[in-house]
């Protein structure tokens, strides 16, 4: 065995280490929980492979009312955070969060399991997520490959949401759909929870994970700088930020940039005092976490009510 195999050649604290032999050790988000029927909400979940060649998959969530509903339910496409390099839909925090969201909003949820950097450098996560969005669109006429989506998801009422780096990806999915077309999918709302966007500086972690990253002129990472922001093809956006979050100002900057861009939609921002980054995932039992989820749910329900005759 190479005596140098355990030599660390690069480390990003709390995220991952890269060893000289090429191994990558993740330091966060490695816990997993299987799909199934949630005992608290009765939401059913299962993992579905989209692309066997790459391993791209979704974790789908079906609320208990789906079987008896006379109409199809809205679809929420959720994109997890983790700095583009850690976590997955099977992480217990995400799994429990989306069980609750599916039950409270009465929506079908598709949680995207994109490939992680640095093994799969950016923009792989963006391309995987777009492939997942397009895959869901194939179910609009009820003849796609996944019965849960064929039978229960209304592709005319679709939300995209994400937290942290996942919020960045979610925004980019909305922008890419605007540019390339969503097909029969109708995006009605975008929810960005504690979003990661670049600021005026080049981001060291992103530079490592994204070989083509050039700095603030890269509008995938630095969305507030995007000259096409006014064309965002989504009528309503909700941004959550927290007072103690190191990304607080970046979320607020995005909110201000979208408002000032000439975009014709409605954007709201909600700030939680005294809270840190994605606090609702770390402790969903606290009152402010419940308040955040309540506003997330209310946002989607209000849009759905406005669309229903």
From TrEMBL:
Pfam families from the entry?
Abhydrolase_3
Which residues are named in the active-site annotation? 164
Question: Membrane-crossing residues?
Answer: none
**Which GO MF terms are attached to this record?**
hydrolase activity
Q: Where is the Alpha/beta hydrolase fold-3 domain?
A: 76-280
Q: What highest taxon heads this organism's lineage? A: Eukaryota
| InterPro entries reported in the protein's UniProt record | AB_hydrolase_3, AB_hydrolase_fold, Carboxylest/Gibb_receptor, Lipase_GDXG_put_SER_AS
By sequence similarity, the record places it as follows: Belongs to the 'GDXG' lipolytic enzyme family.
Designated name of the protein = Alpha/beta hydrolase fold-3 domain-containing protein
Question: What does the record give as the organism's lineage?
Answer: Eukaryota, Viridiplantae, Streptophyta, Embryophyta, Tracheophyta
